[in-house]
Design a protein that fits this description.
Blueprint: E1 12-16, E2 19-22, E3 27-30, H1 33-36, H2 45-57, H3 68-81, E4 85-90, H4 93-105, E5 111-115, H5 124-129, H6 133-136, E6 146-149, H7 154-160, E7 165-170, H8 186-196, E8 200-204, H9 218-222, E9 228-231, E10 242-247, H10 267-282, H11 285-302, E11 308-314, E12 317-322, H12 327-337, E13 339-340, E14 342-345, E15 348-351, H13 359-368
Parallel strand pairs: 3-13, 5-6, 5-7, 7-8, 8-9
Antiparallel strand pairs: 1-2, 2-3, 4-10, 9-10, 11-12, 12-15, 14-15
Helix pairs in contact: 2-10, 3-10, 11-13
The protein binds pyridoxal-5'-phosphate.
Length: 377
């Protein structure tokens, strides 16, 4: 394999619920879940059943034909979003954002505004939207017309968006930047300003969507509706699945021939997606995410540990902020102790556990956390 990921620290072999085992038989509590992907944890019976049944029935159709799992999933997504709209299925977060960017071009305008620190994927269009210079610089020149403004800054938004702006894209919480939470009211102001100028408001819920913050989608907590929402990660419960959803007039931007992807709406992936949504609803996981997330945050705060300066985020997307740049060492110590956590910034540890994380695992993690900062001889 190419060296683009550097040297991985583990070979994982199997998983069950929030636990994974490496090739040497060591067990870990997986507080990262393949980067916020395995919403129901590993080997959830509902996903195993849905995928096994579907692959035995019809594994792929291509997009000249349609299949029932894709239709059902589109309906379910609009149902839980609570808004009329239309769905385009793809395979990843980057691809969902590529579709959103192409939709923005179909407004007839070319200016797109994104945020500094935002992460929207690694393909050329998505990378252009991504506001992290080290990831972009080696690949310039990127797609023209995209600018980046400070995240959470309403004045910058007012200044950047005008009647020539096609779209503003933002994450409700910047996940890859270290779980950055914008000031209260930011998404509402973004909705107002984009509407005033007739620009699309694209909300990238690839990481925050599908229950991770304790509601189906983050926009529902903000009490707004974006024009376009992008999804991936948790939606497939571990299978590659992404979606771009247009609400209202934005649902009509794509016409036949404008866009496509061979695996989009793959029945096996969509069957997995349906199992994810059904299980979140039937097992009351939205409430569970809120309560376990609060418990972890309160537990970490209550440690009053000298290495820890705070906790931010919502639901089960949490950033533990550190007083010094020791996250890599702490994550390595955590791994040795049987916990997979993510040193997303030198001074931030990210948690994105499965939505099914049990309280006992959450409590054990909080209790073990101080030991990750101890100097080992
Ligand atoms: C991970 C992520 C992406 C990219 O998703 P891929 O499936 O890796 O292409 C895009 N946006 C956000 C907010 C993400 O967290």
């Amino acid at each position: 394999m190419m060296d683009n990921y550097g040297t991985p620290s583990l070979v994982l072999e199997r998983g069950e619920g929030a636990h994974v085992w490496d090739a040497d038989g060591n067990r870990y509590v997986d507080l990262l879940t393949g980067l916020a992907v395995n919403a129901l944890g590993h080997a959830h019976p509902a996903i195993v059943e849905a995928v096994s049944t579907q692959i035995a029935k019809l594994g792929h159709t291509g997009n000249l034909y349609v299949n029932e799992p894709a239709l059902k999933l589109a309906e379910r997504l609009l149902d839980i979003a609570g808004e009329p709209g239309k769905v385009f299925f793809c395979n990843s977060g980057a691809e969902a954002n590529e579709a959103a960017l192409k939709m923005a071009r179909l407004t007839g305008r070319t200016k797109v505004v994104s945020t500094i620190g935002g992460f929207h994927g690694r393909t050329m269009g998505a990378l252009t939207l991504t506001g992290q210079e080290p990831k972009r610089a080696p690949f310039a020149p990127l797609v023209p017309g995209v600018s980046h403004i400070p995240f959470g800054d309403v004045a910058a938004l007012e200044a950047a968006i005008d009647d020539d702006t096609a779209a503003f894209i933002v994450e409700p919480i910047q996940g890859e930047q270290g779980v950055m939470v914008p000031p209260a009211g930011y998404l509402q102001e973004a909705r107002r300003i984009t509407a005033e100028h007739g620009a699309l408001f694209i909300l990238d819920e690839v990481q925050t969507g599908i229950g991770r913050l304790g509601t189906w989608f983050a926009f529902q907590q903000a009490g707004i509706v974006p024009d376009v929402m992008t999804l991936a990660k948790g939606i497939g419960g571990g299978l590659p699945l992404g979606a771009t959803i247009g609400f209202g007039a934005a649902a009509e931007l794509f016409k036949p021939g404008h866009h496509g992807t061979t695996y989009g709406g793959n029945p096996v992936c969509c069957a997995a997606g349906l199992a994810v949504l059904d299980t979140i609803a039937s097992e009351g996981l939205l409430e569970h995410v809120s309560s376990v997330g609060k418990e972890i945050a309160a537990g970490v705060e209550a440690l009053h540990h000298p290495a820890i300066s705070g906790v931010r985020g919502a639901g089960l997307l949490l950033g533990i902020t550190l007083r010094e740049a020791v996250s890599a060492k702490a994550a390595a110590a955590a791994q040795k102790a049987g916990y997979l956590i993510n040193p997303i910034q030198p001074d931030v540890l990210r948690l994105a556990p499965p939505l099914v994380l049990e309280e006992s695992d959450a409590q054990a993690f909080v209790a073990a956390l101080p030991t990750f900062f101890e100097e080992t001889p």
